[in-house]
Specification:
Layout lengths: L12 H12 L3 H13 L3 H25 L6 H9 L1 H34 L3 H21 L1 H26 L15 H12 L6 H5 L8 H31 L2 H4 L3 H10 L3 H33 L18 H21 L3 H26 L2 H18 L7 H18 L14 H11 L4 H9 L1
């Protein structure tokens, strides 16, 4: 670390907490309860609790690293300090590359709920998803101060809606819905944990915003603790309500949150869920896009991406070039997902695989950089995340492929330029020969000097 004091950002604790919540309380709460119930039945509760417990050392580790090294590079900055430039580039490429897929799936989840509430078809769902993506990128283009303030309002409304849904479902809780508890056994629980990792992968995203805080060393630990408390409360309440009130229907319903809200609002549940879906999707996309665009600029600043993308990487500024590249990649991922009809389960597991690789590498970096109790927490976070990541099986080929691309880019960039001989005008052989004859032999002293060399 250098002695130069870095420029400080302007992000306060309230808006910072809202941005952190936007990264964690993403659109996963709309689709993941159903996907987890389909994988493990009521035993999905075990996967929820396990991941919440794992989130404590992971969140604490990222807070400690970000407080000590606040920078737009986030996980890439931590990895560079521990393992060097190549590892940092790979980590940065992982996160930057997966955000287009994650943002696309987030938009599609929110759009599906909105379209269901309005009774619209698949074409309208695609159009709504595209509109949500456009809004999220526009908010970040305007600047983090505006999008952070909007996030504060969005998260307040969102938490209120989720609280109402859980309270309304409480009188309908039936213990019989929890039997059989684990119809698919331990493999089902591991499968549920693998897909649920999508819902707990926001801590590394928020770390890229650490340089935007006015006082990172003081604010980040407080913001992380508050966000973790809110996330744990919301997720446990939602998972319990889904399993106990909806039972087996949670695995079959495409809109489980609508079903929960129906207990309290009846026919009005559908439009309320549509509002909730929009809040969740925009909140998550806003934070992930903000973090990834700043990461892209920081990677370019450090030589891991094309240099023109580095403009705007300073705290308080918007990296418009990196944001534009991210928008193009996200649009491409969105078109590919809709064209090939990729399901949400596939997209979320793919996103989880890459983000799990990011988390493992960043936590491993913390093992080298931190000391005392902080290092112990980092060891636990690394081991637990790596164990859960194994349940993603062949999806782990995605981070491997991205790592190869990052390595090839660095190698191509560092190749020395080929030296081409200076162009000479073509001279007839006869003139060359005659010219050499006219010049005559070199002086003896010069030849002896050459020989001496």
């Amino acid at each position: 670390m250098n002695d130069r004091t870095p420029p400080r950002g302007t992000l306060g604790s309230a808006r910072g907490t809202a941005l952190y919540l936007g990264a964690i309380l993403g659109p996963g709460v709309l689709a993941l309860p159903g996907l987890a119930a389909r994988a493990a039945g009521p035993a999905a509760l075990v996967a929820w609790v396990t991941l919440l417990v794992l989130s404590v050392p992971v969140a604490a580790t990222f807070a400690e690293l970000a407080a000590r090294r606040p920078d737009a590079g986030g996980v890439a900055t931590f990895t560079r300090a521990a393992f060097g430039d190549r590892a940092a580039a790979v980590c940065g490429w992982w996160f930057f590359s997966v955000i287009p897929v994650g943002a696309s799936s987030a938009a599609l989840v929110g759009a599906a709920y909105i379209a269901d509430a309005a009774g619209l078809g698949s074409a309208a769902t695609t159009a709504i998803a595209a509109a949500l993506l456009a809004i999220a990128f526009a908010a970040n283009h305007i600047g983090l101060r505006l999008s952070g303030g909007a996030q504060l309002v969005l998260m307040g409304l969102l938490i209120a809606l989720l609280a109402v849904a859980c309270v309304a479902a409480l009188p309908h809780f039936d213990p019989a819905n929890l039997r059989p508890f684990a119809p698919h056994g331990i493999p089902g629980i591991l499968s549920a944990a693998a897909v649920l990792f999508y819902a707990f992968s926001g801590w590394e995203a928020a770390s890229h915003l650490s340089g935007e805080f006015a006082d990172p060393a003081r604010q980040l630990r407080r913001v992380t603790a508050l966000a973790l408390l809110i996330v744990a409360t919301v997720y446990l309440a939602l998972a319990t309500a889904t399993a106990g009130a909806l039972g087996g229907s949670a695995a079959e319903s495409p809109v489980p949150l609508t079903d929960l809200l129906a207990y309290g609002f009846g026919p009005a549940a559908a439009p309320l869920t549509a509002v909730c879906a929009a809040l969740l999707s925009l909140g998550a996309m806003n934070t992930f896009i903000a973090g990834a665009s700043r990461l892209g600029a920081a990677l370019a600043r450090d030589g891991a991406m094309p240099a023109p993308l580095a403009k705007g990487c300073e705290p308080g500024r918007t990296p418009h070039r990196s944001l534009a590249v991210l928008a193009v990649l996200t649009g491409t991922a969105f078109i590919a997902a809709t064209w090939f009809g990729l399901g949400l389960d596939t997209q979320m597991r793919a996103t989880s695989a890459v983000l799990a690789a990011v988390t493992v590498l960043a936590c491993a970096a913390a093992v080298r950089l931190l000391h005392g109790h902080a290092r112990v927490r980092a060891v636990v976070a690394t081991a637990c995340t790596a164990a859960i990541a194994t349940a993603l099986s062949w999806y782990l080929l995605l981070p491997l492929g991205i790592a190869v691309l990052a390595y090839l880019y660095l190698r191509a960039k560092r190749l020395p330029p080929r030296r081409t001989p200076a162009r000479r005008e073509a001279v007839p052989v006869s003139l060359q020969v005659s010219g050499s004859r006219r010049r005559g032999p070199r002086p003896t002293a010069h030849r002896s000097g050459q020989a001496g060399r």
